Amino acid sequence: MQIKPGYTTVRRNATNSDLQRAIEAAIPQAVRQGKSIASRYKGKTEEETCKKIFDYLKNNINYKADGADQQVRLPSALMRTAQGDCKSYSVFTSGILSNLGIPHKLVYASYDPTDYTPSHIYVVTDQGCIIDAVYGKFNAEKKATYKKYKNMNIAYIAGVKPRKIGRSCGYSGIGATESGLEWGKRNGIFPYQSELWLSANNGTYRKYATAKVFPLAITGRAIVRKLIEKNAGGFATSLNKLMMDSRTQSKGQPAWDKMRAIELQWLETGGNPNELYESISEGAKKTATGQYFNKLMKMKAGGYTPNPAQWIAAGVSILFGKKYNEATGTIGDPATSSGLLASAPVWVQFVAYISGVIGTAYVVAKVGGPNDVPGETPPGGDGGNNGGGNGGGNDGGGSSTRSALLPILLIGGAGVAAYFYFNKKK
Fold first, then answer.
1. Residue 27 shares a structural domain with residue 43
2. pLDDT value of residue 227
3. Do 225 and 89 share a structural domain?
4. Which stretch of 88-97, 127-136, 315-324, 343-352 has the lowest confidence by average pLDDT?
5. Cα angle vertex 236, ends 230, 237, to 5°?
6. CA distances in angstroms from 211 to 104, 113, 206, 337, listed in the order given
């Protein structure tokens, strides 16, 4: 195991027992780090104290599941990076509770009826108050098929079957690894019914189930995530600001409603909103690039409608560093461009939708330098592809748009038509 300032990296393909040992070994350090900040979470009652810890983690720390290299972050690293998963959440919580003299246990939980190996961890006090910010509901827990409790005065839990860590906390519906179906159930979008019942009675579920396995929708979602992760035009910066604002609000307030609308649109495109959060967190760390992409976002946010060819040109420059050839409908290498172009009706629609929903208040005012993206179409240039004038972007049916869409329709064919038939809003 490799020790770095603020966090421990458990070796690749570590066993579950290795991971538990790393978590428990980090807690004494977390107690020392938490000494200076614990008082800010102290409430009048134990429950109020637990709620303050829960609210801090839920509202200020982005959940991001670790990959093959599992990390246990100490409170200093968790607060500095503002991201982590259930392991780091639990270390932080234990450190604070220990400083406040509140007895508690670690809860190792499994949600797989065929495997008792823990896949999630959270904290419960001896009086029974549950702190699981990953699950997202205060003093509540997802029903587990198996739970093992670890008192903090015991050095090590033995008897847990070792297993290679292939996925982080959250088997069968916790945090970023839960399915879109489980996310929908947890947020009340899908009633707690069978999938057969949902198929017959829930239009949003039908759209989700159809688009989830549709090849062009899969490619389209991947392109959207890549654009966000590259912070195209400040896409991730804008979404991250909205996401953080929404966490301080409730249903019926502007940021909350905007974020929920985006989550639902992503769900209807077959995606899992938790994946969207991961891409936003990743992209928000990067400098915004792509002036042309940013210009289109501002146009859409301001009420204008850039045509599909403009979005394609901006997306191509961000992803490939090349200029889109409208005459041939390619990026130079037809094999490279085929997936992006075939799935354009999916990703262009979603990018434009988000830009319209977030509005001008959330679109970043400025991105990198004038030549920050190789092959980018300069803002205000490119003749017919600009839509003309400051209010440009209203499609009007010009030849530029038709020439760009023709190859898309030829490549996508009946598949694109089928996608929009099933995804059409009622």
1. yes
2. 92
3. no
4. 315-324
5. 120
6. 44, 29, 9, 22
Q: Same domain, yes or no, for 216 and 113? A: no
160 Cα distance to chain centroid: 31
The CATH code of the domain that includes 110 is 3.10.620.30
pLDDT band at 414 (very low <50, low <70, confident <90, very high): very low
Bridge partners of 7?
4, 73
Q: What are phi and psi of 125, to 5 degrees?
A: -75, 165
The DSSP secondary-structure symbol of 410 reads: H
- Residue 169 sits in the same domain as residue 184: no
Domain encompassing residue 125: 2-176
Contacts of 389 (CB under 8 A, 6+ apart): none
Give me the amino acid identity at 38.
A
Q: What is the pLDDT, as a whole number, of residue 64?
A: 77
Domain C-terminal end among 176, 193, 213:
176
d(CA 120, CA 138): 16
292 membership: H or E segment, kind and range: helix 291-301
d(CA 10, CA 20) in angstroms, rounded, equals 10
Q: Residue for token digits 């038709």?
A: 402
What is the percent of the chain where pLDDT is above 90?
A: 34
Q: Which of 142, 176, 210 marks a domain boundary?
A: 176
Contacts from 196-203 at CB under 8 Å and sequence distance 24+?
Answer: 203/426
Question: How many domains does the chain contain in total?
Answer: 2
Q: Where residue 36 falls among pLDDT bands split at 50, 70, 90?
A: very high
Helix (H, G, I), strand (E, B) or coil at 232: strand
Phi, psi of 130 (to 5 degrees): -95, 130
Q: What percent of the chain is predicted at pLDDT more than 70?
A: 70
Do residues 185 and 155 both lie within one domain?
no
Residues 167 and 265 in one domain: no
3-class DSSP assignment, residue 199: helix
Residue pair 41/49 in contact (Cβ under 8 Å)? The answer is yes
Question: What are the pLDDT digits (tens) for 310-365?
Answer: 888 888 888 877 676 655 555 655 445 566 677 888 889 999 999 999 999 899 87
pTM of this prediction? 0.57
Return phi, psi of residue 117, to 5°: -65, 125
Residues 112 and 134 sit within 8 Å (Cβ to Cβ): no
Which amino acid is present at 220? G
**DSSP H/E element including 123:** strand 120-125
DSSP 129: -
More confident residue, 93 or 160: 93
pLDDT digits (tens, 9 = 90+) for 273-294: 878 887 888 888 888 988 889 9
